[in-house]
Amino acid sequence: MKPIKVGLLGIGTVGSGTFKVLQRNQGEITRRAGRGIEIAMVADLNTARARQLVGNAATVTDNGRDVVTNPEIDVVVELIGGTGIAKELVLEAIANGKHVVTANKHLLAKYGNEIFAAAHAKGVSVAFEAAVAGGIPVIKALREGLTANRIEWIAGIINGTTNFILSEMRSKGLAFDTVLKQAQELGYAEADPTFDIEGIDAAHKITLMSAIAFGIPVQFEKAHVEGITKLTPADIEYAEELGYRIKLLGISRRTGDGIELRVHPTLVPAKHLIANVEGVMNSVLVKGDAVGQTLYYGAGAGSEPTASAVIADLVDITRTLTADPHNRVPHLAFQQGSLADTPILPLGKVVSSYYLRIRVANQTGVLADITRIMADQDISIDALLQKEPAEGEHQAEVIVLTHQTAEANVDAAIAKIEALPTVVGSVVRIRQEDLS
Amino acid sequence: MKPIKVGLLGIGTVGSGTFKVLQRNQGEITRRAGRGIEIAMVADLNTARARQLVGNAATVTDNGRDVVTNPEIDVVVELIGGTGIAKELVLEAIANGKHVVTANKHLLAKYGNEIFAAAHAKGVSVAFEAAVAGGIPVIKALREGLTANRIEWIAGIINGTTNFILSEMRSKGLAFDTVLKQAQELGYAEADPTFDIEGIDAAHKITLMSAIAFGIPVQFEKAHVEGITKLTPADIEYAEELGYRIKLLGISRRTGDGIELRVHPTLVPAKHLIANVEGVMNSVLVKGDAVGQTLYYGAGAGSEPTASAVIADLVDITRTLTADPHNRVPHLAFQQGSLADTPILPLGKVVSSYYLRIRVANQTGVLADITRIMADQDISIDALLQKEPAEGEHQAEVIVLTHQTAEANVDAAIAKIEALPTVVGSVVRIRQEDLS
């Protein structure tokens, strides 16, 4: 049978990994897919570099439109990133009846509903395993492996850069800025690290997983997003004393009132498997009503791990190429037209436990004031640490771990605590999840 | 669209879980599958119990042939177990053009080649996610999620009973027999626990994963199988001192000479994620050349976790029901007719590291004798512990951790060590894997 012809938009890190792995493993991949998979055309602004990478194996162009309009091309792999030209080319590829594989979480988290609807109308697939957690086949697990389940929640370490930074801060007691610089030197963080360290990249990914898990449209604009830039080594150490580690988690949970969708630093029990996922590795924990907890772990980024996911999607498309489009796995796991309109919960209604760090003047009575405020807000206390001032300092620290309560209660308590004359500066708040 | 009609062979633990989950989550499952999935007929020898479970929802019979010959039934779910009547009914269902879903690892590990060939000839699917690691979608990950990769090795905790026993032995310092009794009382071990504790169940599962990973026929008869019955709390403790935990692993690895296929107690680095999988939980670690290591974790058994896998297979079949059979995912991941004839390696050629525990008379010179024998066999030593005799005893213990060497070298060394007049009884040998 004639090989599937693939057009590549962008041949940077992931694109060149995809090209290399397809070449290296073409024998095994063909034995699996039943047909060869061939990159026939590559579009990249740097045509010289592209030509060097692909040699005579593929045509090189500097214009993506050459790829998406080429009638020889069956599948377009979009690896440009961002929401500009990538969006135009993906929509044009779909309009021309081509299947699309993309690693672009930003694009899908923002414009997924529009893109999936266009693909559905045209009867083509838009596959995006590579957009979430790199090489870990977690989109497949959620969309196909756990279809029996009413998913209760998902919690994932889905950004390797921030997990590397947190791992280093904890194991070496270093400050955020110091480790960020190291991460940049090691190539684990970009020159402009905003998307990673502010939690935006993780929010793109949890948005996509949330849609698949709960059968709701993609709703990135409703996600609560908090990064790790304000975390201090002290918080990490105190959390450790209390039996927890701090991880940047993407969390989405189904509740009676709606769906929680949030990214923030989170205290997780130190003994939980996910607390022990260190360095740049990713891991996603899924709780289903039938299966219980399952966990998926692996490399969340990098050239060949991400290529592994891109190629898995290419093989899936190859295997179902002649299948009736209505019997393909739906983009968002649930059939188009049967998505739910369950609302995303506002953060104030989210129920969680909380770690609060409060800097206080070292005076008697402060603790009584704080605990009274919390009792008034119906917040009960799970654990409390008092850290005496270091020599020559006058301010102590109080760390409170609360039981579960609504975020709005904690907001109110924090406002009152910060208004106490004995309290200095802002209260540090980190959410805590038992993941049970 | 008319719902898919399912016939259930056996409605015990997993069967009743499947029925319950399909009923409870039928709304979500239909939204995912695009059609209803309905258990229309149930065969079980205990018809009274079966009727009580299914009420008026399904016809009940005591004869499995009624199910596999019923023209109304689209898919047969085989949950009888064993290789007797289950084999006959599966083959008859296939001959009648029905798709089959089964949790029966024993059947597939022994007769998989015959069954898959019959299904291929007839153009039907035999799906078996539930046969390996319960609710963890690891068959899907291997067969569809990691298709880009040349798989290098798989190592899995794929038997919950033995992992529970080992976890208890370690955390409480108890003997094997004591914990086995507790496991039986808790329902984690069967009255006849042979298949679990002797490693046979794990061997069935690693045999199936090995076929899928490497594109080879199912070859259970060539697996090396060792259980956990001879492990002592002392070995677990010494392993701990050396920085390792002992897990019963199913291991399959591709080497230049052939494929390793083995189940045995294994020392794994205590810091590795898989070493921290405790109790009845399962976990499978897969190393691919592109993706690196990925890990899958969850419940490996139980009513609803296993039902979760059965139903995922039913949804997959529903989604592809009109698809051209040649474009379906192949049973063993690689297209029928393109399986490889890579041999399974004999154990003597397997290269591993080893933990050896040697009981010796407390005399000078013993250690020199032992280390000389090992040097003569080209075995280099990674670590060595000497345990002095307890008061009133005259025998000490020597624990040796070796570097990598061929099993045949270790066989030879052990024979010579056991022949030393100063060595008492047999040498305990446990393999060690770095999983890196």
From TrEMBL, chains A, B:
InterPro entries per UniProt: ACT-like_dom_sf, ACT_dom, Asp/hSer_DH_NAD-bd, HDH, HDH_cat, HDH_CS, NAD(P)-bd_dom_sf
Domain of life: Bacteria
The organism's taxonomic lineage, starting at the top: Bacteria, Pseudomonadati, Pseudomonadota, Betaproteobacteria, Burkholderiales
Domain ACT as annotated: residue spans: 355-432
Top EC category: oxidoreductase
Residues involved in L-homoserine binding: E190
Any one biological process term the GO annotation gives: threonine biosynthetic process
Alphabetical keyword list: Amino-acid biosynthesis, Methionine biosynthesis, NADP, Oxidoreductase, Threonine biosynthesis
Protein name (database record): Homoserine dehydrogenase
Entry similarity comment: Belongs to the homoserine dehydrogenase family.
Gene Ontology MF term list: homoserine dehydrogenase activity; NADP binding
Enzyme nomenclature, EC number: 1.1.1.3
Pathways per UniProt: Amino-acid biosynthesis; L-methionine biosynthesis via de novo pathway; L-homoserine from L-aspartate: step 3/3; Amino-acid biosynthesis; L-threonine biosynthesis; L-threonine from L-aspartate: step 3/5
